[in-house]
């Protein structure tokens, strides 16, 4: 527990500092974090990160991760990120033939889905921080909602939890805890909105609160399902007492793309 608390304080303070910096410093920091997260997924699938397949996988993830202005500095403007990513998919499929199926179609699917999951998740985190004027607040606001949901779900579930939410994936989570987390996020998110009314209306803020709280919990379940499928306790061990990068960022990288795709931020 002591190790977990120390890691949480140091890691949290460092992350907050990077968010405050913003710009290329934050983008570079998130790029490193995303690379570690991708390597954690590759290791779950028993693909060596420094193997040819591992490097191609990391490149695919970086392609989706990096800000567009970084991409345009390196690649001619007549190639889009989507076109190159599709080409990478074709290259991966080609390797199933070249390796005589030692690199399988299932592994190709894993690499593609992992690249999208990690790459786009962290990409939209960078993009949110880069929103003029309000980016800093929006990142902290979503973080606050996720942390509040987690805390509310933990304490309500521990006190009143009776009915399991999804026992096959996460045995300790309860329906009562999940609802408690949403209610806690609604209360705290509403209070902060009235002090910092960054959204055009409270309705928008309310939608952000609900989406962040519900899908933040779903993002946590997605990562739990991954770990259960590959029979691992934690995604990694880079954060003593906390596990891996995915263990700590699973909710955030699931919520950020959804908020952008719904045009809420």
UniProtKB/TrEMBL annotation:
<feature type="transmembrane region" description="Helical">
    <location>
        <begin position="78"/>
        <end position="96"/>
    </location>
</feature>
<feature type="transmembrane region" description="Helical">
    <location>
        <begin position="138"/>
        <end position="156"/>
    </location>
</feature>
<keyword id="KW-1208">Phospholipid metabolism</keyword>
<comment type="pathway">
    <text>Lipid metabolism.</text>
</comment>
<keyword id="KW-0594">Phospholipid biosynthesis</keyword>
<feature type="transmembrane region" description="Helical">
    <location>
        <begin position="6"/>
        <end position="35"/>
    </location>
</feature>
<keyword id="KW-1003">Cell membrane</keyword>
<feature type="transmembrane region" description="Helical">
    <location>
        <begin position="177"/>
        <end position="196"/>
    </location>
</feature>
<keyword id="KW-0472">Membrane</keyword>
<protein>
    <recommendedName>
        <fullName>Phosphatidate cytidylyltransferase</fullName>
        <ecNumber>2.7.7.41</ecNumber>
    </recommendedName>
</protein>
<keyword id="KW-0808">Transferase</keyword>
<keyword id="KW-0812">Transmembrane</keyword>
<feature type="transmembrane region" description="Helical">
    <location>
        <begin position="108"/>
        <end position="126"/>
    </location>
</feature>
<keyword id="KW-0548">Nucleotidyltransferase</keyword>
<dbReference type="InterPro" id="IPR000374">
    <property type="entry name" value="PC_trans"/>
</dbReference>
<keyword id="KW-0444">Lipid biosynthesis</keyword>
<dbReference type="Pfam" id="PF01148">
    <property type="entry name" value="CTP_transf_1"/>
</dbReference>
<feature type="transmembrane region" description="Helical">
    <location>
        <begin position="47"/>
        <end position="66"/>
    </location>
</feature>
<keyword id="KW-1133">Transmembrane helix</keyword>
<comment type="pathway">
    <text>Phospholipid metabolism; CDP-diacylglycerol biosynthesis; CDP-diacylglycerol from sn-glycerol 3-phosphate: step 3/3.</text>
</comment>
<dbReference type="GO" id="GO:0004605">
    <property type="term" value="F:phosphatidate cytidylyltransferase activity"/>
</dbReference>
<comment type="similarity">
    <text>Belongs to the CDS family.</text>
</comment>
<keyword id="KW-0443">Lipid metabolism</keyword>
<feature type="transmembrane region" description="Helical">
    <location>
        <begin position="202"/>
        <end position="222"/>
    </location>
</feature>
